[in-house]
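Fig. S4 source data, part A: sequence.
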Amino acid sequence: MAFPLLLLGLGWALLARPGALSQEPSGSLLTRGGPVTFVGDSLTAQGDWQAAFPGHQVHNRGVSGDTTFQLMARLPAVRQTGASTYLVMVGINDIGWGYSPRGIASRIQWLRSGLQLGGGARVIVQSTIPCARFRCGPEGLHRVAELNQRLAQQIPPQDFVDLTPVMADADGLKHAYTVDGVHLNAAGYARWQSRLRELGLP
């Protein structure tokens, strides 16, 4: 089932190929200086990424409630932003729906391949930000940790950002960074964005 889905998605990506995509190799200076698109669910949607990175043209393609399945369906529209760099962070809704970490990681890899196809864009996958223990329980935290471990194994190190050390502790998402155990407050977004800047991203 996964292979036909991959072919279908990559076909969509080719049909949706925007002319503005950079042809420079991944990670080049020209690629880093081009448009940037943040991709994900409500955690991405609620961030003011343009204000955080004023030196770039920034697109926000986060949609509240999205799972990796819904993001796969949105792939052509995301590609239409013509970004040179995509930053993907998704997965917590999949965890909430009970999908397996293995499957979630495979779909995120699928998305990365689709965003890269034909344009030379750099696609940076960020680890899924954990929920707080009081919100999703120890089992939820364990499944997020497994997902992130799989992502770290699958994504090239230069294109993987582990947010867990700065966003979470032993009880999951830090209390100081969240309004409800899942979504972020201003301090949470500030820490996430500062971590990206610390790494020289985007």
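Fig. S4 source data, part B ends here. The longest strand covers residues 36-40.
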